[in-house]
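Following the same procedure, sequence and fold were stored together, as reproduced here:

>
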Amino acid sequence: MDRAADRVTQTVILAAGRGVRLAGSDASVPKPLITVAGVPLIAHALAHAAASGCDEAIIVIGHEGARVRAAIEALIATTERIAVRFVENPDPTTPNGHSLLVAEPCARDRFFLQMVDHLFAEPVLRQLSSPPLDDRTAGRVLVDRAPVDLDLSDATKVRLAGDRVTAIGKAIDPWDAIDAGCFLLTPAVFEALKHVPPSEPRTVSAAMRTLAERRALAAGELRGVRWMDVDTPADRAAAERLLAPQSAGATGGAPRP
């Protein structure tokens, strides 16, 4: 039964980074505003969240924050599908865990986490919601056991034991699946971030490693849905090919600016 108490209605979207590796495609445009299939990356992310049942998105901005915010506000003025709140990472050069931490005051008891540069052929966030998280589980990461057209040398790998993540990181070997960049989280992730050792970059993956060490991170398997991590011009070209056979609506009705 789909109980209202188990529904996840908020997402946090990390959109603060500079996107240096993608700059070759258009160095004058901030990464969240780079288009794929004619639609900005942030619009794809918002449409994905709205199609997955979210009524609010917390968007973490940073690099050219004022420009990105203005563009998003103009974008959402044409749709009432999802409410948006902005928080800012004052130093967008920091690892992405810092961006997640600035969203802590806004986070609900259960929320999705999205990376602005991860595109999916169809909405997948709801796959993380079932079954509901139990008391021993602080979060769930979406994983892909059979990735297609991804740069595996740069991908975040995951090792699994049943539905539990036992290890996560780019250097994991052997590995069972790839982290697809979508999460269902509780506020426990913020404590995990705060306890990342000073000698280690404060990344989302570092927090996930802490949760995995506690056996508190579950995995939800992505099946039958193609996706792309758009980090480079080559990734952008592959994402264009991925979405080319589809209308914008296939990614959850991404609104055009």
Summary: Helices lie at 41-51, 65-76, 96-101, 188-194, 204-213, 233-243. Residues 151 and 168 are 17 Å apart (CA to CA). The longest helix spans residues 65-76.
